[in-house]
Design goal:
The complex is a heterotrimer of chains A (269), B (232) and C (466).
Chain A: H1 8-14, H2 17-20, E1 23-27, H3 31-36, H4 38-50, E2 53-56, H5 66-70, H6 74-88, E3 93-96, H7 99-112, H8 117-129, E4 130-132, H9 133-140, H10 145-148, E5 155-157, H11 169-178, H12 200-203, H13 205-221, E6 226-228, H14 232-245, E7 250-252, H15 254-261
Parallel strand pairs in A: 1-2, 1-3, 3-4, 5-6, 6-7
Chain B: H1 6-27, H2 41-44, H3 53-63, E1 67-71, H4 76-86, E2 91-95, H5 106-116, E3 120-122, H6 127-132, E4 135-139, E5 142-144, E6 149-153, E7 168-174, E8 178-179, H7 182-190, E9 198-202, E10 207-208, E11 216-217, E12 224-230
Chain C: H1 6-16, H2 18-39, H3 45-61, H4 63-76, E1 80-84, H5 87-100, E2 105-108, H6 112-116, H7 119-125, E3 129-132, H8 135-142, H9 159-170, H10 178-195, E4 198-201, E5 205-207, E6 212-217, H11 221-227, E7 231-237, E8 241-242, H12 248-260, E9 267-271, E10 285-291, H13 295-298, H14 314-318, H15 320-325, H16 336-347, H17 364-368, H18 375-385, H19 392-405, H20 408-421, E11 429-430, H21 435-440, E12 446-447, H22 454-462
Parallel strand pairs in C: 1-10, 2-3, 2-4, 4-7, 5-8, 7-10
Antiparallel strand pairs in C: 5-6, 6-9, 11-12
The chains are: A alpha/beta (269), B alpha/beta (232), C alpha/beta (466).
Chain lengths: 269, 232, 466
C-alpha cells in the first residue's frame, strides 16, 4: 500500500512499483510539438514515466482546431473537437505540453459543443480530465518543479500568454529560480506577447513582426542564451525570429529541462 | 426661464420615457444574473478609523503634490502668512464656510490679520476678483486620509471658482474633518438629505502629462495647493 | 495579390514611423508600470475588479430601472434630461440648446462620447466656436489632428510639433519647454473661459439614486467647463450609470489607477443639478444628454459586457498591437483592444471587420481591465460574425486544412510534406513561399520540421521503452 499522502514519485523511490501503473496518462502531444518539436514530446513522456505514470499515445490524434476557432471558424473547430473527443475517451487523464491547446480543450470544446446534446457531456468529461503538463506535475503528482531543475548556464524565459489559465509568469519565474545553480536572467517585461497569435501572424505580418521584435529585444537583452518557453507556437515564432536576426538564442520547454536535469535525456547543446 | 422652453422640455421627457419603455420590453425576457453587491466596504476600504489619520493624510497628500503644513489653533494664521509671502501673493480671496469647525469669526479674524500683515484680503466672489486674485484661502467640507484629498463644495457663500481659479490655493483642514477612506466620505454623502450642486474632491494641484509625458502642474486649476492641517 | 485595405495601409504607415512607435512604447510601458504599482496599494485588487464588474453588469441588466431613477433625480435637482437615440439626434439637441442661448463660444472638456458623435463639427457648422480645453485635445484641435489615445490624446506628438501648433494659434514665442507651453495654453484658454457661454463635458459615472454626475479630470477642464459658462451640457452614454453613491469608491479606486497609476484623478467633480439660488457661481442650467447610439442593441446579446467599459485606457497601454501601430491606425475614435470591439459593434461590422482580427489574442488587455471585460473572448466572437466575409481563398484553405486534420493519415502526410518539401534556405531553415508561408516568414524564418516526427519517434522507440 502507498500511504495516502505519499506522492507517486515518492512511491517509486520507496519501491512500490506495482501501484505506479495506476496513474495512466494519455499524451496529447499537439500538432506543433509533434511536427516541429518531437524532443519536447519525448521529454514529457520520460518525465511522466519518471514520476510514475504509464503513458499512452493515442495515434488517432491530430490538431485540436484552435487556429480555426481563434479565427472565428467555429464549425471547422467543432468538427475537429468532435473528432478528437473519442480519441481520448478511453483514458483516465490527458496531459499536453501546451497550455494553449489545453485551454482549447478545457474551455472552448465545451463552448463549441454546448448545443449538441450528444457531445456536451463527452466534451465536459474530456475538459475535466485534461491537464497542462506542469499543472499535472504539480497538482496530480505533487512534484515541486523547481526542486528537480538544474542549469549549467544562465537562463531566461518567455511566458506564453495562453498559459495564464494554467500558471502565471511568477510561477514560471519561481520554478526556474528554484533550480540548482540557476542564474535566472529575468527579461525586462515578464509578460509580453511574442506576436504569434495563430493565424494573426499570417493575417497581419506587418503587426506581428514588430511585436516579435519587441519580445526578442527583451530576451536578447536578458543576457542569457537559453530561453525557457513552454509553448510550441511561441517557440516557433521566437526561434524563427531569432534565426532571422542571427541572435544566439536557444529555446527549451521546461519538460526538456526536467528530463535533462533528471538524467532522463542527454543535454542538447 | 423662458416659458417657450417648456415645450421642448416636455418632448424631451416623452422621448426619454418612450426609450425606457422600449428598453423594458427588450429586457423583459432577459434574465438578470448579476445581483447588486451589498457588502462593498470590506473589499474596498484601505484605511480604517483607528489608523493615524493625520499621518496617512499627510503622506498621501504629499505624494500627489499637495504641501501639507501641520498647524495648531494658535499658529495657523502665521503659517498662512508665510505661504502667501512665499508665493508673493498680495490679493487674496478668503472663503471660509461659517459652518466649518474653524468657527464663525474665523473669516473676520483671518481677514483682519492678513490686512495687518500687508495683504489685500477680500471676501468678494465675483468673476473679476476670482480671475485676478493671487491666492485663495478656503475651508473644506471634509478631507480623506486614504488619498490625501480635500473636499470643497458649493453652497451659500462658497464659490466653485475659489479653489479653482487663483494660482495658489490654501485649504484649511481641521484634523476632526478627516475621514479615513473614500468609503466613509461617500457613505456620509449617501446619508445626507440633498447634496450641494457641486462637490469637488481635490487630490493634488491641477496637472497634465500630455506633453511627452512630462508632469506639469497648474494647467487650468491652481499650480500650488497648500493644506494647513490644524490639530486641536 | 489584392490591393491592401485602408486599415493595412494605415498599419504599414504607422509601424514605419519610428518616432511615434518609440514615443508610444515609452508612454505605454511607463503607464503600465505606474498602474501596477498603484494597484498594489489596494488590499485586494482582484476582488475590487470583480465588484466593479458585478455592479456594472447588474446596472446594465436592470438599466430601465436605473435610467428612470436617474432621470427623476436629475430633474428633481433642477436639471433637464434629453434622450438621443443616435449621434444625429444628440448633435441636434446640443445645437438647439446652444441656439436657444444665443451661444457664440462654447468650451468642451475631454469627452470620448462627444468625439464619438463628432460634436465639434456640428457646433461649428451651427456657428458656435467650440474650443477643446483638455490640453491634449486642444493641441489636437489647433493642429487639425486626431487624438490617438482615449486618455492621453497626443501620445503620438513630440514637443516640437506641439510648440509649432501653439505658436501658430496663439502667436506666442517658440519654446520647447513643457511648462512654458502649458502656461501659454493656460493663458489662452483662460480668456476663452471668461468669454464662453456654454460648457460641454462628458460624464464618467452617473449616480442613479441621486442624479449626480461624476466627472474626473486632472487638469481641471471638467471643472472649468462645468463652472464658468451659464449653461452646462453633460453628454453621457446610457451605460455610464451606477446605482448608488457608495458604488463610486469602487470605481474611483480603479479608474485613475488603471488609467495613469494615480490613486485618484486630481479633480473628481460631483455635479447634482445646476447652481442653487444662494450659490455665488455655477451654471444656471444643466442639460444631461443621454446617448444610446447603438448601445441598447447590445444589452441583451453576447457583447453586453463591453458596456461595462469605463474608458480608462488601460487596455490600450497593455496592448502590444496598440504599442506598435498607435491609435490612428485603428481609424476610429476608440482605438486599442476595447476599440476593436466597440467600433465594429457601434459603427458597423462591415466597415470595421478587420479590427477584431488585428489581435494576437494575448489577453494583456483582459489582465488589466478594471471591469474584467473578456476582450479576447469577445474578439473571437466578433471574428465568428465576419468569417463569411473573409477572402474566399482563406475560407477554402481552412476547410481544406480541417479535412486534412480529420484523418491521422492525411495529417501524417502533411507532416511528411513539410519535412521534405519546404525549401532549405540556410541550415535547416526555410524562408519565403506562397500565401501563408510567405506571410509567416515575412519577419521570421521557419524551421524545417525534423523527418522524425513525435509520432514516428513514439512508434519506433518510445512506446516500447519502459
Amino acid at each position: 500500500m502507498i500511504p495516502a499522502r505519499m506522492a507517486p514519485h515518492e512511491a517509486r523511490v520507496s519501491g512500490c512499483y506495482a501501484e505506479l501503473d495506476a496513474v495512466e496518462v494519455a499524451l496529447f502531444v499537439t500538432c506543433l510539438t509533434d511536427t516541429f518539436f518531437p524532443r519536447v514530446g519525448e521529454a514529457v513522456v520520460r518525465v511522466l514515466r519518471h514520476f510514475g505514470c504509464r503513458v499512452e499515445f493515442p495515434e488517432g490524434q491530430t490538431c485540436c482546431g484552435q487556429p480555426a476557432f481563434n479565427s472565428g471558424f467555429d464549425a471547422e473547430a467543432a468538427a475537429l473537437a468532435r473528432r478528437m473527443i473519442p480519441v481520448f475517451e478511453p483514458y483516465e487523464q490527458v496531459v499536453t505540453p501546451s497550455a494553449s491547446c489545453a485551454t482549447m480543450v478545457k474551455t472552448h470544446f465545451p463552448e463549441l459543443l454546448a448545443d449538441e446534446a450528444r457531445w456536451r457531456e463527452a466534451a465536459a468529461r474530456l475538459a475535466a480530465k485534461t491537464y497542462e503538463f506542469t499543472t499535472f506535475l504539480r497538482e496530480k503528482l505533487d512534484v515541486d518543479i523547481g526542486a528537480h531543475l538544474s542549469f549549467d548556464e544562465p537562463v531566461t524565459f518567455h511566458f506564453p500568454c495562453h498559459a495564464r489559465e494554467a500558471y502565471g509568469p511568477d510561477d514560471l519565474h519561481n520554478w526556474l529560480a528554484g533550480g540548482k545553480q540557476a542564474d535566472l536572467c529575468v527579461p525586462e517585461h515578464s509578460d509580453l506577447c511574442c506576436g504569434f497569435g495563430g493565424l494573426f501572424a499570417v493575417d497581419y505580418p506587418e503587426i506581428s513582426g514588430p511585436m516579435l521584435a519587441d519580445r526578442l529585444e527583451d530576451l536578447a537583452a536578458s543576457g542569457a542564451r537559453l530561453v525557457i518557453c513552454n509553448e510550441g507556437g511561441c517557440t516557433l515564432s521566437l526561434a524563427g525570429g531569432a534565426h532571422r536576426r542571427g541572435l544566439p538564442l536557444r529555446f527549451k520547454h521546461v519538460a526538456e529541462c526536467l528530463a535533462e536535469s533528471l538524467g532522463l535525456m542527454e543535454p542538447e547543446r | 426661464m423662458n416659458a417657450d422652453r417648456s415645450e421642448p422640455r416636455a418632448s424631451a421627457r416623452a422621448a426619454m420615457a418612450a426609450f425606457i419603455d422600449a428598453l423594458r420590453r427588450r429586457l423583459r425576457d432577459f434574465e438578470s444574473r448579476a445581483s447588486l453587491p451589498q457588502e462593498l466596504e470590506q473589499t474596498v476600504r484601505q484605511v480604517v478609523a483607528s489608523d493615524d489619520l493625520p499621518t496617512r493624510f499627510t503622506q498621501a497628500a504629499t505624494s500627489v503634490g499637495l504641501e501639507v503644513h501641520p498647524a495648531s489653533p494658535t499658529d495657523w494664521m502665521d503659517l498662512i502668512g508665510d505661504i502667501l509671502r512665499k508665493h508673493d501673493a498680495h490679493s487674496v480671496v478668503v472663503q471660509l464656510d461659517t459652518d466649518s469647525p474653524l468657527g464663525k469669526r474665523a473669516a473676520t479674524e483671518l481677514g483682519n490679520r492678513l490686512t495687518a500683515d500687508g495683504f489685500a484680503p477680500t471676501t468678494a466672489l465675483d468673476d473679476e476678483t476670482l480671475f485676478s486674485a493671487d491666492a485663495a484661502i478656503t475651508s473644506v467640507a471634509a478631507a480623506i486620509a486614504e488619498t490625501g484629498t480635500i473636499v470643497c463644495t458649493s453652497g451659500p457663500g462658497l464659490a466653485r471658482g475659489a479653489s479653482l481659479l487663483p494660482p495658489v490655493h490654501v485649504a484649511i483642514v481641521q484634523t476632526s474633518q478627516l475621514v479615513p477612506d473614500q468609503c466613509d466620505y461617500f457613505d456620509q454623502l449617501a446619508g445626507q438629505a440633498g447634496l450641494p450642486a457641486n462637490i469637488n474632491l481635490i487630490t493634488g494641484p491641477s496637472k497634465t502629462a500630455d506633453i511627452e509625458g512630462i508632469l506639469v502642474t497648474g494647467v487650468h486649476g491652481p499650480r500650488h495647493v497648500h493644506v494647513v492641517l490644524v490639530s486641536p | 495579390m489584392s490591393t491592401p485595405t485602408a486599415f493595412r495601409q494605415r498599419v504599414c504607415e504607422a509601424v514605419a514611423d519610428e518616432r511615434v512607435v518609440r514615443a508610444v512604447h515609452l508612454a505605454t510601458w511607463h503607464k503600465m508600470e505606474a498602474r501596477a504599482e498603484s494597484m498594489r496599494q489596494l488590499r485586494d485588487p482582484e476582488a475590487i475588479r470583480e465588484l466593479a464588474a458585478q455592479i456594472k453588469q447588474h446596472t446594465l441588466e436592470n438599466l430601465p430601472h436605473y435610467l428612470e431613477q436617474f432621470v427623476a433625480q436629475v430633474e428633481r435637482s433642477g436639471g433637464c434630461v434629453h434622450f438621443a437615440a443616435d449621434a444625429d439626434t444628440a448633435r441636434r439637441i446640443i445645437c438647439d440648446i446652444a441656439a436657444a442661448h444665443g451661444t457664440k463660444l462654447a468650451v468642451k472638456a475631454k469627452s470620448m462620447t462627444s468625439e464619438e458623435i463628432h460634436l465639434n463639427d456640428a457646433l461649428e457648422a451651427a456657428g458656435v466656436r467650440t474650443v477643446e480645453t483638455d490640453l491634449g485635445e486642444f493641441i489636437v484641435q489647433i493642429d487639425h489632428d486626431r487624438p490617438s489615445h482615449i486618455v492621453t490624446p497626443i501620445i503620438h506628438k513630440d514637443r516640437q510639433q506641439i510648440a509649432r501648433a501653439l505658436v501658430r494659434e496663439t502667436g506666442c514665442e517658440y519654446t520647447e519647454d513643457a511648462e512654458e507651453l502649458t502656461a501659454i495654453a493656460r493663458r489662452y484658454l483662460r480668456d476663452i473661459f471668461r468669454r464662453c457661454d456654454l460648457g460641454i463635458t462628458g460624464v464618467n459615472f452617473g449616480v442613479a439614486e441621486s442624479g449626480t454626475l461624476c466627472i474626473c479630470t486632472n487638469e481641471g477642464n471638467g471643472r472649468m467647463s462645468s463652472t464658468r459658462p451659464r449653461v452646462h451640457v453633460a453628454l453621457m452614454g446610457i451605460e455610464k450609470l451606477v446605482p448608488r453613491l457608495r458604488d463610486l469608491p469602487v470605481f474611483l479606486k480603479l479608474l485613475a489607477r488603471s488609467s495613469t497609476g494615480q490613486p485618484l484623478t486630481v479633480y473628481t467633480t460631483l455635479v447634482t443639478g445646476p447652481k442653487r439660488v444662494d450659490d455665488p457661481d455655477g451654471p444656471e442650467e444643466l442639460h444631461v444628454v443621454l446617448l444610446d447610439n447603438g448601445r441598447s442593441e447590445l444589452l441583451t446579446g453576447e457583447f453586453a459586457e463591453v458596456l461595462r467599459c469605463i474608458r480608462c485606457g488601460a487596455c490600450l497601454n497593455a496592448c502590444p498591437v496598440y504599442r506598435n501601430i498607435g491609435g490612428h491606425a485603428y481609424g476610429s475614435v476608440y482605438p486599442g483592444p476595447i476599440g476593436s470591439l466597440v467600433t465594429p459593434l457601434l459603427q458597423g461590422l462591415d466597415e470595421h471587420a478587420e479590427l477584431p482580427r488585428a489581435s494576437s489574442l494575448c489577453g494583456a488587455c483582459q489582465v488589466v481591465c478594471p471591469v474584467k471585460i473578456d476582450i479576447p473572448g469577445l474578439l473571437v466572437r466578433l471574428r465568428v460574425r465576419t468569417r463569411r466575409s473573409q477572402p474566399l481563398l482563406k475560407r477554402a484553405a481552412i476547410r481544406l486544412w480541417k479535412w486534412m486534420m480529420k484523418s491521422p493519415t492525411r495529417y501524417a502526410w502533411v507532416q511528411w510534406c513539410l519535412s521534405r518539401l519546404l525549401p532549405d534556405c540556410r541550415d535547416g531553415w526555410s524562408r519565403g513561399g506562397p500565401g501563408p508561408l510567405g506571410a509567416w516568414t515575412h519577419c521570421r524564418d521557419l524551421p524545417i520540421p525534423p523527418k522524425q516526427s513525435f509520432r514516428k519517434l513514439w512508434r519506433e522507440r518510445l512506446s516500447d521503452e519502459r
